[in-house]
Design brief:
homodimer, seven-stranded parallel β-sheet, 15 helices
């Protein structure tokens, strides 16, 4: 059920629901045979740029799993294409940026991102997916948060240590803030465009922000994430990160109607850290989905018990579904959460 | 000054010191030109197995930097060689284990580790390094904690997601605990052997334990880490991990005279989380050492201010020195900490 009556949107608003809603990050992905069949015919970027195909992928987990929300099929780096930094989705390697942005001069060369020109296909995917969902469940849009997107731009791809990113932050703070301003501005317009096209909630992925300590988060990230969330209107924002146990109060301060928690913090402790007056999303370890269904049941129950039936819990993993996950385990989790949380 | 009068050992005992002692994880490593000169002539394993060379490397940062402790040059995986799992230190890749231990049957095939036969060269390195130090500063020995060592054994090398490790934990808990028992037993004998050979403190590296949530830590790790620390006698233990913001009270419960904190938690908040009645070590982000000396000074000062001059703080990074770090920045940090903390 879409619109304001859906269990997902009610939970986001912290209203009582008949059961705890569940959706899963990367629920449209490689663990699904029907997704792999699409990918056999199209590259990742081709899929993203083809609104019919991307809308189809967006709906696959809704059909297969019975999740309570769909999430747009896209990538957090699509917005970077017009920057001319040589973005490539290399096979098996994840994204590569061939001309990383590492100095004040590199930052100065960046032109503002013309969002409408950059990602018209994303907005079209949102429109088609929303239409195809036909009110069954709400559609979630998303974008990368400024820090996480900046980290790819500066490192040139995925990173463990974020040394270039931190060096730019520490040694060239003006350039850093200029880069973050540019990204925050584009991100807000991108999310508002998705909402205008039909997204009923949006998630801001600050996936790698847990690499920072609280002082760095406060100085270099918080103002920009807050700027994004202040500028987004018309739909609630889910503010997500991993490894954020010590950052949670600051993430709350930055904004979001829902704060994402990963499994490295107990759900009840995490909820207290962000405040019981905000909704939370999480927080099963995705690795649990590779264990037996009996274990999945036991661990899902533990997460639900820590939520204590309090309105405002959206069940999810602490990060995306891993591609090695058996699809029947994912289906089992959705059913288990609905069954155990039925009120 | 070695022995009980050293600033390092006094801080470990939470006694007042004239200044805050500092040593750095991976202080003997690739960022040092004199280390790179040694590595040009010897492979990593050759260096570890050659007590004269390893003792020389152990002393290099003491001569160059004026740190308040030396740490044994060795590797946490050396102890695994007798298991016959095909351990190799591959160039540029880090350690590889060619025959990973992933099932109950794999675990059942493992024979207990004969520590004295496995690493006589480590004990000899400790003896020679201690002699060469001649009482200037204390010598720290170390070992990998059972979880972190097990994660290499099960994954076959470094990992981001630890999926095989968690699957073994969840689906075959008896095999997991048998593996952890075997490692805990060998680790305790290894550390006691280093202490007998002259190590004046030891660090237990549970570097990757932050991949787990608190429930998993309590069930699958804590009993084994505690067993190691209970069995170690004659020298204080520094209990170290990264990404542990939500695990700190449990790490304290597991044991250690000093608890290591990484930069993802504020030092004062981390110290309160482990309890003010235990010493702490940390917690500057190693990335700060790649920034300018003015930034290094500012950030070192912030760490010292959070320690508030309370006895029981050993200054360190939150993880090892990165190989791209300018050696003069490392030297500057040591001097800055001594200067700013002079009482």
């Amino acid at each position: 059920m879409s619109g304001s009556e859906s269990v997902f949107l009610k939970a986001v608003r912290r209203e009582p629901t008949p059961c705890t809603p569940i959706w899963l990050m990367r629920q449209a992905g490689r663990y699904l045979p029907e997704y792999r069949a699409m990918r056999a015919r199209h590259s990742f970027l081709e899929l993203c740029r083809n609104p019919d195909a991307a809308a189809e992928v967006t709906l696959q987990p809704v059909e297969r799993l019975g999740v309570d929300a769909a999430i747009l099929f896209a990538d957090i780096l699509l917005l970077l294409e017009p920057l001319g930094v040589g973005l490539e989705f290399a096979k098996g390697e994840g994204p590569v940026i061939h001309r990383p942005v590492r100095t004040a001069a590199d930052v100065a060369r960046l032109a503002p991102i013309d969002v409408d020109a950059a990602v018209p296909f994303v907005f079209e995917t949102v429109r088609r997916a929303r239409r195809a969902l036909a009110g069954r469940v709400p559609l979630i849009g998303f974008a990368g948060a400024p820090f996480t997107v900046a980290s790819y731009l500066v490192e040139g791809g995925a990173s463990r240590e974020f040394l270039h990113t931190k060096r730019l932050m520490y040694d060239e703070p003006e350039a850093w803030h200029r880069l973050m301003d540019l990204l925050a501005d584009a991100t807000a317009r991108y999310l508002n465009g998705q909402i205008a096209a039909g997204a009923e909630a949006v998630q801001l992925f600050d996936s790698w922000v847990g690499a920072l300590g609280p002082d760095d988060y406060r100085a270099y990230v918080l103002p920009h994430s807050r700027a994004v969330m202040k500028a987004v209107t018309g739909a609630p924002v889910i503010h997500f990160g991993t490894g954020t146990a010590a950052l949670l109060p600051l993430m709350r301060e930055a904004g979001g109607e829902v704060i994402g928690l990963d499994w490295r913090v107990d759900l009840d402790a995490g909820w207290r850290a962000v405040g019981l007056d905000v909704a939370v999303q999480g927080n099963l370890d995705p690795a649990v989905l590779l264990a037996s269904p009996a274990i999945i049941r036991e661990r899902a129950r533990a997460v639900l018990e820590r939520a204590a039936g309090r309105p405002g819990h959206v069940f999810n993993l602490g990060h995306g579904v891993h591609q090695a996950t058996p699809v029947e385990h994912v289906k089992a989790l959705v059913d288990i959460v609905h069954e155990l949380s039925a009120r």
